[in-house]
Write a structure and sequence with these properties.
The model has no long low-confidence stretch (mean pLDDT 90). It is globular and about 45 Å long. The protein is built from nine helices and seven strands; from the N terminus they run H-H-H-E-H-E-H-E-E-H-E-H-H-H-E-E. The protein has a domain of 157 residues: Rossmann fold (3-Layer(aba) Sandwich), CATH 3.40.50.150. The chain is 45% helix and 22% strand. With 234 residues, it is of the alpha/beta class. Helix 5 links the parallel strand 2 and strand 3. Strands 3-2-1-4-5-7-6 form a seven-stranded mixed beta sheet, sandwiched between helices.
Length: 234
């Protein structure tokens, strides 16, 4: 079974099981299905977090791809948290320096208040049953003045491109996933969950309501991806 594509009825256990299954070929599938753009999106996310000398929490960290970018940009330490144990095990197997691996839930972070200088999440908020609750947890563990960066798929703003992209999600992406993924069904969920995801303004409003200010958004790849950043209210 796959998780519900939208917020209603999304089961965290199904999300965990799905990512445990895709872990073996996760990087290969992401690179192929994004046409090689995923590495650039991770770098933009890491840059937006302003990680120099910072202690950063990377939520939905998977095998640590964003965590590695954060360390490369001078993060003092990165705590990589994910609901999927298999994803974390893959990252730990690679032996990344300055990264601690934590199996945990974005909706109930196992950290004290004001622990981190920055919190990042890349392509993971969409998979959380209650994203607003998760953002509240991010704000709780972010130090005053710290940053949150949310990188997530979005719908392109230019109507002709949006139509082409929707056709790719519905038709071509699931077909490609049969070739490159260890769980093609998970990528049917990916397409449906992107189409069900709210617009940029809604996400910005959630981030503001959680306790961040000066929320801005940057579109990548013609609006396929949107990177939101906000600063924790002092």
């Amino acid at each position: 079974m796959l998780p519900a594509a939208g917020r209603e009825g999304k089961d965290a256990a199904l999300v965990q099981a799905m990512f445990d299954e895709v872990a073996p070929r996760y990087d290969l599938a992401n690179a192929a299905l994004s046409l090689g753009q995923d590495a650039h999106w991770r770098r933009v996310t890491a840059d937006a977090a302003q990680p120099l000398a910072a202690h950063v929490l990377d939520v939905a960290a998977g095998p640590g791809n964003v965590a590695v970018e954060l360390v490369a940009r001078g993060a003092r330490h990165v705590t990589a948290l994910d609901l999927s144990f298999n994803m974390l095990a893959e990252g730990a197997r690679r032996g990344h320096d300055h990264v601690t691996w934590v199996n945990g839930d974005a909706q109930a972070l196992p950290f004290p208040d004001a622990t981190f200088d920055a919190v990042t999440i890349s392509f993971g908020l969409r998979n959380v049953p209650d994203p607003e609750r998760a953002l509240g947890e991010f704000a709780r563990v972010t130090r005053p003045g710290g940053r949150v960066v949310v990188c997530e798929f979005a719908n392109p703003t230019w109507p002709p491109f949006r139509e082409v992209y929707r056709r790719y999600l519905v038709g071509l992406l699931p077909a490609m996933a049969k070739v490159v993924s260890s769980s093609p069904a998970a990528y049917r969920y990916l397409a449906d969950s992107i189409l069900a995801w709210p617009d940029r303004r809604t996400i910005a409003d959630w981030i503001t309501a959680a306790g961040y200010q000066q929320v801005q958004v940057k579109d990548l790849a013609g609006g396929i991806v949107a990177v939101h950043r906000g600063f924790r209210t002092p």
